[in-house]
């Protein structure tokens, strides 16, 4: 991640949009400097150089303004993560190392912007957020590259949920201890949390298959991650292949009965 400070919107040529962005920028600055309690309509209005009614007209209330600040921050952060993913792919970075760098970036951002991160982590704000969706797509792309080199232990969708939940939970746990935790304790918690989630989603580089099906399952996970890009197959064929590969990953033989029944 290129920065850890709260992002501030750039000016826009549209006067109405410029006013909105000035207000969001003022609120973001107050939030970053003094926390959520400092983001009052009066303080934001003074810093943005507008009248308080303008804030109510554009955002409804303080919660609406905080929603706008969180969405903007998530948009900037998601764009930075997407750029890191693209750079890593172009430079041939090890996919597992890239996944870890994304984890570290999330932890660093959360600790540098505690009040903002708490707001962004509110499930109510995350639902339907284009910025949250973009951030998850960046994580999906990182995990897809991990799968492509045979290092993904679980299905991509499950890995996304685990990594995202663990990263968010780790930041919130560290912030909860902010008054008593030393920097090395924070780093230790982040490292141990990463080790725990990695053990659940990654195949160790020198791992020897534990059973006769392990190698096939890993291969199925790798192919499953690239099914959508198999242009030689029709959409219907890709859907069928994805279903078959999911059965291999899950260790089921759901197709046997159907096959017998159709004979």
From TrEMBL:
It comes from the Bacteria. It holds the Pfam family TetR_N. Coiled coil: none annotated. Keywords: DNA-binding, Transcription, Transcription regulation. Residues 40-59 bind DNA. Transmembrane segments: none annotated. Residues 17-77 form the HTH tetR-type domain. This is TetR/AcrR family transcriptional regulator.
């Amino acid at each position: 991640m290129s920065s850890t400070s709260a992002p501030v919107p750039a000016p826009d040529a549209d006067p109405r949009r410029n006013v909105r962005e000035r207000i969001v920028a003022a609120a973001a600055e107050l939030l970053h400097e003094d926390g959520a309690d400092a983001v009052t309509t009066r303080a934001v209005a003074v810093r943005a150089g507008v009248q308080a009614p303008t804030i109510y007209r554009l955002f409804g209330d303080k919660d609406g303004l905080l929603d706008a600040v969180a969405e903007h921050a998530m948009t900037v952060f998601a764009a930075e993560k997407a750029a890191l993913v693209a750079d890593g792919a172009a430079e041939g970075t090890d996919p597992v190392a890239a996944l870890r760098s994304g984890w570290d970036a999330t932890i660093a951002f959360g600790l540098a912007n505690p009040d903002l991160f708490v707001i962004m982590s509110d499930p109510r704000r995350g639902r339907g957020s284009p910025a949250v969706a973009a951030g998850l797509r960046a994580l999906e792309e990182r995990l897809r590259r991990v799968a492509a080199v045979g290092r993904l232990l679980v299905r991509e969708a499950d890995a996304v949920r685990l990594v995202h939940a663990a990263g968010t939970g780790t930041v919130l746990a560290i912030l909860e201890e902010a008054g008593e935790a030393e920097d090395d304790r924070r780093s230790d918690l982040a490292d141990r949390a990463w080790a725990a989630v990695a053990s659940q989603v990654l195949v160790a580089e020198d791992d020897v298959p534990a059973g006769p099906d392990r190698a096939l399952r890993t291969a199925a996970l790798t192919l499953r991650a690239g099914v959508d890009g198999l242009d030689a197959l029709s959409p219907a064929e890709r859907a069928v292949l994805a279903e078959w590969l999911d059965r291999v990953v899950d260790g089921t033989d759901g197709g046997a009965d159907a096959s017998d029944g159709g004979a």
